[in-house]
Design a protein that fits this description.
Rossmann fold, elongated, 12 strands, alpha/beta, single chain, 12% strand, Arc Repressor Mutant, subunit A
Length: 442
């Protein structure tokens, strides 16, 4: 079987980590099996979907390393949905309903009071042609429901194993609103059939939808794809990510200076048996991640883990990769990069760290260290300098003052850099040069 997967976001906002998880898992699956990846914009919600958000999704996917093989927009495929609608109506599987939202709410409340499940009672199936004509004459426009078989629907889930969804416990789903617009379900199934989607990989919150969709696939005479439902990524507080709640978007992570690989790794390996560690590429992850490794429990995002991973990726980044980005910041130099990258958490941090070399810095000198630093200035070795200069200088200071350890090194660091932390002084000294060190020492 030639694998074809799809990721189907709604362009109603910027995508977040929770959206990136299925986007990437589908990509891994396609790459692992030599398949194709379809980006499908579910933009049938004309009130909330915008081209700006759709373009933003493409930018975010590209930043993460995903290059779809095909892009389709549901707003351009309405004729396909209309044809499927007509087939289902003819087959008696799609029927008009005239209840208002208030009437449906009352029915559900009454069912709960009677101890019954609050599912639709299919009253509309008992309406005569005269009843429907009268309701429409009153100004009521019908919404359309799909008549479920009401049976146990079984499928073998790629991640969760054998699953059963009993559609007898569900309301017949509304597929078409009263204004004639389509909800997600019918266009999704029609597109999956038309595009030849072989595998649908999505969050476990869609398991019950799968039972409904399998019945629609069958009603349209198509074999359902293979489904896989992964655990959901939650935020640090255990809450689901949500566009409506303003969850941090992928664009936010990009703007804050995170590496796309770090974001991709955390979004997908969290909640799996693979460790959250550095990888060179998405393909390297695809080779290792089998869906049997995805946990059945929740996957909680840890911001500190993202920071740690981001730092590791930067610490290992070769100069050839960093050079164009450094140039864009007005910086250059392989020695500078090799020295300072170990201190970075995010790439833009290099601008502040580079001031250790270019200045300006504010030397910090404690009163009790002034005599020691004056002696250090006097004992500063002549140039040329190399990797041995630091030990020559500090050995001479140790012999002259008896200082060692922190009392020896910290005053030098504070005077030369103005910071308690930073790169190895042995290497920094060579890049600073004797004149700069003389200027910074009191």
């Amino acid at each position: 079987m030639s694998v074809i997967v799809r990721w189907a976001p709604s362009p109603t906002g910027r995508i977040h980590l929770g959206n990136a998880r299925p986007a990437l898992l589908n990509w891994y699956f396609a790459r692992r099996h030599g398949g194709r990846y379809v980006l499908r914009m579910d933009d049938t919600d004309h009130a909330r979907s915008t081209r700006e958000f759709a373009d933003g999704i493409e930018v975010d996917l590209s930043w993460l390393g995903i290059q779809p093989d095909m892009l389709v927009r549901q707003s351009e495929r309405t004729a396909l949905y209309d044809a499927a609608r007509d087939r289902l109506i003819t087959a008696g599987r799609l029927y008009p309903c005239y209840e208002t939202e208030e009437e449906l709410d009352r029915k559900r409340a009454r069912a709960r009071l009677l101890g019954k499940p609050p599912i639709y009672d299919r009253a509309a199936l008992n309406l005569t042609d005269e009843d429907r004509a009268r309701l429409e004459a009153e100004g009521r426009a019908p919404h359309w429901r799909f008549k479920l078989d009401g049976r146990p629907v079984q499928f073998d889930d790629l991640i969760k194993g054998q699953q059963t969804v009993n559609t007898a416990s569900m309301s017949d789903p509304v597929l078409i609103r009263a204004d004639g617009s389509y909800l997600y379900t019918l266009p999704s199934v029609v597109d999956d059939i038309d595009l030849g989607i072989t595998h649908i990989i999505r969050g476990e919150d869609h398991v019950s939808n799968t039972g409904t969709q399998i019945e629609i696939f069958e009603a349209l005479g198509a074999a359902p794809p293979i489904f896989g439902h992964h655990n959901l990524l939650t935020d640090a507080q255990g809450q689901g990510f949500s566009k409506r709640l303003g969850s941090q978007s992928i664009a936010d992570f990009r703007d804050e200076g995170y590496e796309p690989m770090a974001v991709a790794i955390v979004a997908t390996l969290t909640g799996t048996s693979l460790p959250v560690e550095a990888y060179d590429s998405l393909d390297a992850i695809a080779e290792k991640l089998d869906f049997s490794m995805i946990s059945h429990g929740s996957a909680r995002f840890d911001p500190a883990e993202l920071d740690t991973l981001n730092a590791r990726l930067l610490h290992a980044m070769p100069y050839a990769i960093a050079a164009p980005r450094l140039s864009a910041l007005g910086l250059e130099g392989e020695a500078m990069w090799s020295l300072l990258r170990e201190n970075l958490v995010k790439f833009p941090d290099i601008v502040e760290w580079s001031k250790l070399l270019t200045g300006p810095i504010e030397p910090v000198v404690a009163d009790e260290d002034r005599d020691f630093l004056a002696l250090a200035k006097a004992l500063l070795p002549p140039e040329p300098w190399d990797d041995t200069t630091w030990s020559q200088w500090t050995n001479a200071l140790k012999a002259s003052t008896g200082r060692k350890g922190k009392s020896l090194f910290l005053p030098l660091r504070m005077a030369l850099t103005g910071r308690h932390d930073g790169p190895e002084l042995k290497s920094l000294l060579v890049l600073l040069g004797r004149k700069v060190c003389l200027d910074r020492l009191p």
